[in-house]
Design brief:
The chain has three helices and eight strands, in the order H-E-E-H-E-H-E-E-E-E-E. The chain is an alpha+beta fold and 154 residues long. The strands form two sheets. The protein has a five-stranded antiparallel sheet. Strands 1-2-3 form a three-stranded mixed sheet. A hairpin with a 2-residue loop joins strand 5 (101-110) and strand 6. Helix 1 crosses helix 2 (44-58). The radius of gyration is 20 Å and the shape is elongated.
Length: 154
Amino acid sequence: MISKDTIKTLVEEWLKQSNYFLVDIEMDADRIAIEIDQADGVWIEDCAELSRYLQEQVGDELGDYELEVGSAGIGQPFKVEQQYQNHIGDEVEVLQQDGKKITGVLKSVEGRQFVVTAKEKQVPEGKKRPVLVEVDKEYSMDEVKSTKYVLNFK
């Protein structure tokens, strides 16, 4: 029986020769699902190449599993820091622990901290009506439920 650590080691070895990075590996009794990503998107040919590489390296043991190699999926929550880095300047949706959603532009990422510039209504001093202003909100990747890229069809 093949281990998840063995698969991870082999995937990371293959990734060294590319711009891709590992997002996730899910493994159960009969299925191995590997998610990879890169700034320019994932090509099906590269997924097939990684799949062939794993089959060559592992051999018959892999025959017991259904192997899936694919992209992390656009619009899916980020799982690793590199996904945050790749989306600096893009619109994202942050789901906070309290269930509140904030949408804004991912401004910066430093370690596991990130900043989103969002618009919110505030009443300026000496005024009666609120106006929309841009506010930087700082978050920790460990303290939000999820963050994901917002698809815009404009």
